[in-house]
Amino acid sequence: MEASFRPVSFLFLAFLFLPNFLFFFFCAGLSELRCIDTERQALLSFKQHLIDPSNRLSSWTAHGDCCLWEGVVCHNLTAHVHQLHLRSFYPVWDASMSSEQFDAEFEAYRRSRFGGKLNPSLLDLKHLNYFDLSFNNFNSTAIPSFLGLMKSLTHLNLSNAGFVGLIPHQLGNLSSLRFLNLESYEAYGLYVNNLEWLSGLTLLQHLDMSWVNLSKASDWVQVTNTLSSLLDLQLSYCQLRPFIPPTPTVNSSSLLTLDLSGNNFENTLIISRIFGLCNLVSLDLSYNHFQGPIPVDLQNMTSLSHLDLSRNNFNSSIPNWLYSLSRLEFLNLGGNNLQGTISSAIGNLTSAVSIVIDLPSNRLNQEVSKILEILSRLYRLETLGLRHARLSGHLTDVLGKFKKLVRISLRNNSISGPLPVSLSNLSSWTYLDFSYNQFNGTIPQSFGQLSKLEILFIGSNMLKGVVSEVHFSNLTSLKYLSAFGNQLTLKASQNWVPPFQLENLYLQSWNLGPKFPPWLCSQRCMQYLDISYTQISDMAPPSFWNLSSQFYYLNLSHNLIHGEIPKSPLILSAFAIDLSSNHFKGPLPCISSNVYLLDLSNNSFSRSISHFFCFKVNEPKIIVHLNLGKNLLSGIIPDCLMN
Ligand SMILES: *[C@@H]1O[C@H](CO)[C@@H](O)[C@H](O)[C@H]1NC(C)=O
Ligand SMILES: *[C@@H]1O[C@H](CO)[C@@H](O)[C@H](O)[C@H]1NC(C)=O
Ligand SMILES: *[C@@H]1O[C@H](CO)[C@@H](O)[C@H](O)[C@H]1NC(C)=O
Ligand SMILES: *[C@@H]1O[C@H](CO)[C@@H](O)[C@H](O)[C@H]1NC(C)=O
Ligand SMILES: *[C@@H]1O[C@H](CO)[C@@H](O)[C@H](O)[C@H]1NC(C)=O
Ligand SMILES: *[C@@H]1O[C@H](CO)[C@@H](O)[C@H](O)[C@H]1NC(C)=O
Ligand SMILES: *[C@@H]1O[C@H](CO)[C@@H](O)[C@H](O)[C@H]1NC(C)=O
Ligand SMILES: *[C@@H]1O[C@H](CO)[C@@H](O)[C@H](O)[C@H]1NC(C)=O
Ligand SMILES: *[C@@H]1O[C@H](CO)[C@@H](O)[C@H](O)[C@H]1NC(C)=O
Ligand SMILES: *[C@@H]1O[C@H](CO)[C@@H](O)[C@H](O)[C@H]1NC(C)=O
Ligand SMILES: *[C@@H]1O[C@H](CO)[C@@H](O)[C@H](O)[C@H]1NC(C)=O
């Protein structure tokens, strides 16, 4: 009985618990895949020399499984340490963030950075291929040359890690490297004497040395040319000199992305001589000193989708062949000295998503609506800038014909007539710049429906009439409003609460008076405010002065604002403050050490000036322009003035 019972029961039980049985088996199998002891020791020694102020590596403990540690990635079959992710996270500025929020995140970032020394124990990680140390604080130490012995590396990211000094040429021994990032915002802390060592990196695909001082690397063209795997080369702000090789060394045809912005190049010969760039998809030559015509060599780069030639001294007309680059999505010709007119061939840029063109040397008037009519056929276009181009005529309703356009700048032309009433799909526009034109008439009430609009420039036109709450009814996203130099009157009720939180507001020469606009006090993010010459003859309420610590620029001049500036707890702290030509009275306000410009002239400030000059006398002041003239001040000039 017994003998026959057991097998049955065993089979039965095994069947019943089969899932658990398998689970147990596999878990046991996996948990044996713990990290390799020498590698754990290597990481622990590495940790010992690292400064980790916010204890991010608390999981790195003596007896743990290092494959489970923060930032460590092991191979799933061999358990060798393959990747070390030790970057710190620089906060990304986001438009919805207040500056306090950003400051707080920045402070958290600063405190989370690793520092200290890199221990060569890392060399025991024989299978490490990915090493990211970016955005840390290896404060002013050199990149250790032993990194050149970590032969297994395919990715090395030392971007903004705080290293300074000569980049060790031993890095050229990392012959498996595909990604190398040495970008460094820290004011040219890193430099090289030459780039010969790079030629050992035959598999390199992505190289970023932006902001590294390469002024001595006269071989940069030759060397980068020999890197036959290179796809992406970022050498912006490298102090590069145009060492133009004697013959064209057309070779590096693998290159897809090239960024040489910010390098003071003048001669366009460099472009034709350097690379066999026919496959290039993205070329950035902005912020150099290129002169003369737009180089014809670009004509053969038919794969280009991103071309940035902005901020140079190109002074030709725009060549028609540029418009035959049919894959071009992003074109920036802003900030040059280009001349001539915009040809109707621009309608051939059918891939265009963003076009920015300045034509400051334009001597010909061109009809704005004709150009826009052509451009409206570019159905992918989202951003359009046609600035300083002497475009004239009326806008009529042509903006309504664009399909996807959400950002437009027609700044500094000669466009007249009314502002456009019909903006197709009103809720999509985010950026409108009509400033420095001759628009006349009133502001259309339809502007009040631009619920995504963040930036509106209509300053320096000939607009007239009354602006009411309706004009702002749905401008919930507005952050930047510049409308100075028009004859506009704002009529809003005393208890109006605007739907927006502005950061910048320029309403010089509007009529905002006679009452001080109470709605200004609701703007808790305002940093730049100019309401000079706005016919206010009232006291500024205390709640307005409560905002004052957030200002960077504050101009209330040439009004009839009266009363005292509250003494406590107020300290004026904007970078530039102009309260001149008002009727302020009472004692001078105290100012913080970060005020650069202060004009309190032509008011009725009275009493002694000692407290003004002697306030926090030991803090170094940066003030450069100070005008206290035309007031009723008295008493002696104190010695504190010397500070
Ligand atoms: C190990 O990882 C590789 C890719 O990272 C993946 O393709 C593979 O399926 C994984 N193997 C196991 C057993 O998880
Ligand atoms: C290097 O790190 C920076 C910042 O952490 C990141 O933006 C970049 O993509 C990384 N580059 C590579 C090649 O991994
Ligand atoms: C590393 O590179 C240097 C020169 O950059 C060279 O002298 C040295 O022999 C290389 N070492 C190895 C192990 O390849
Ligand atoms: C870059 O290096 C050169 C040569 O060493 C030096 O003269 C120059 O001052 C450096 N530039 C900066 C901005 O440090
Ligand atoms: C690129 O240059 C190298 C030597 O510098 C040469 O061996 C190679 O053939 C060249 N490639 C092309 C496509 O010209
Ligand atoms: C463009 O600039 C170059 C160099 O500054 C100058 O020689 C040339 O006359 C200019 N051309 C035009 C059309 O202004
Ligand atoms: C452009 O390419 C053609 C042949 O495809 C060639 O004849 C011409 O010289 C090239 N132009 C420039 C400026 O490189
Ligand atoms: C624009 O395209 C038309 C039609 O494809 C073509 O005839 C014309 O030559 C092109 N213009 C330019 C400047 O490429
Ligand atoms: C407007 O453009 C002209 C050149 O066309 C330039 O001289 C002037 O400075 C520009 N004005 C503004 C306000 O940008
Ligand atoms: C304001 O915008 C919202 C969302 O875009 C929309 O539903 C509403 O009708 C708009 N109101 C006015 C008065 O335009
Ligand atoms: C001084 O301020 C008054 C208004 O308070 C104004 O009328 C006058 O023009 C100002 N003087 C100067 C020189 O700005």
Explain the overall architecture.
This protein has a 23-stranded mixed sheet, with no helix packed on it. A hairpin with a 6-residue loop joins strand 2 and strand 3 (81-85). The termini are far apart. Mean pLDDT is 89; it is low at 1-31. It is globular. It has a domain at 244-417: Ribonuclease Inhibitor (Leucine-rich repeat, LRR (right-handed beta-alpha superhelix), Alpha-Beta Horseshoe), CATH 3.80.10. It is 13% helix and 20% strand. It has 643 residues and is of the alpha/beta class. Bound molecules: 2-acetamido-2-deoxy-beta-D-glucopyranose (NAG) (11 copies). One 2-acetamido-2-deoxy-beta-D-glucopyranose binds at residues 291-292, 315.
Give the key terms.
643 residues; alpha/beta; Leucine-rich repeat, LRR (right-handed beta-alpha superhelix); 23-stranded mixed β-sheet; 20% strand; disordered N terminus; binds 2-acetamido-2-deoxy-beta-D-glucopyranose
